[in-house]
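Quick log. Single chain, no ligands specified.
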Amino acid sequence: MLLSCASGGDAGRRSLTSRPPEPGRLLVPPEAPSPAPATPGLQPLALGERRDGLLYVPAGYDARQPAPLVLMLHGAGGDARGGLDPLLRIADDQGLILVAPASRDATWDRIVGSYGPDVATIDRALGRTFSGLNVDRSRVAVGGFSDGASYALSLGLGNGDLFTHVIAFSPGFVARGPTRGKPWIFVSHGTHDDVLPISATSRRILRDLREDGYDVRFREFDGGHAVPAHVGEEAVAWFLEGR
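-> predicted structure:
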């Protein structure tokens, strides 16, 4: 069973016009009927919210070819750009579509209580991305750093019919709840992290995930509360190879 640590296949399509009944349950975005060419680069999601999200379309994106997608979630006190930062510099080389919403408050709702408006924001961000771009449904990941990693793990396990992979950089915990599917999971953590110490967080998360039958790639590194460039590169290579 998955336990909280430190503070800090397709199951069917659901209607986009109604909220799912379970907290933390995301809608499955529709496929774009005929994806149009898209302008490469960084652009606002234009969600009409106080804290907007960002979309990154890689150079060389071809609407005729499905592209892998990573939903990236920022850490506490961060914003959409902070969510993108761990993978932004390698997105062009790897052909990654990146989408980064921003939490409604200083951090993601489930970190400080229960699922709430952040789930709806993420739904809208994904809906806009899937409706305009040709996304490879077999390579859809949710990732994040710190609080964003905790939220990514929690959402990813509960929405394994949408996310094939979960990438968690220095997470603090996994929120318990109903799970679906068995997404592949990548977890990294610095051995000298003094914000979310590894012994109280990722090592316990790893044990619980493996006890529950998840396939987990675990990468400890000599460093603090950060995402070193080589760790981000390893995570993307793991994602794109299908494990």
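The CA atoms of residues 17 and 159 lie 18 Å apart.
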